[in-house]
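Worked example 3. Consider a protein that binds 4-nitrophenyl phosphate.
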Amino acid sequence: MKDMKSDSNSRSCNPMRPKTHILFVCLGNICRSPAAQGVMQSLVDERGLSHKFALDSCGFYGGHAGDLPDKRMRVHAVRRGYELTHRSRTIRPWDFDEADIIVAMDGHNYDDLMEAAPSPEAQKKIVMMTDFCRLHPGHDTVPDPYYEGAEGFELVLDLLEDACAGLLDAVCEGEV
Ligand code: 4NP
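Given these inputs, the predicted complex is written out as structure tokens:
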């Protein structure tokens, strides 16, 4: 896990900024990152923490901008109780200012984010989703399911449920 401890207390306890802004990032913003946003929204709602978090997602490729998540992703997600309504968008320069935590789904997303980040402070906000998995230690990426079958979408959701719970716990405990 990338060391963000030095920033963490100001982020989670600042009364002027009561919400922690988490931005999930993948390539197309139609499969993994909107699913991560939906899974995390469900978790914060369940825990009565929705007033403390602002969740969003985006991607680097704009070919699906404005679209709902991929139909297959929505079908697999809704079976687990997640309704995905986000509209795809590309990352914007000010996302690095607005977000407190920027979560990459895979190594390419991570490298692209590090390159696009305008400052070392912005780079410190970038973390890997799988670093927060507790039940899937063998996975260091949330794999792109776009050209995969049903099992690819199920694996994405398995990893995201594990990692979002880990990330939420880490934020609540002031570790991120
Ligand atoms: P995502 O999956 O990054 O998880 O949204 C993808 C969706 C679409 C494409 C690539 C990845 N695409 O190239 O169209």
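Take a moment to read the result before moving on. The pocket of 4-nitrophenyl phosphate is lined by residues 26-32, 59, 61, 63, 144, 146 (CB under 6 Å). The chain is about 40% helix and 10% strand.
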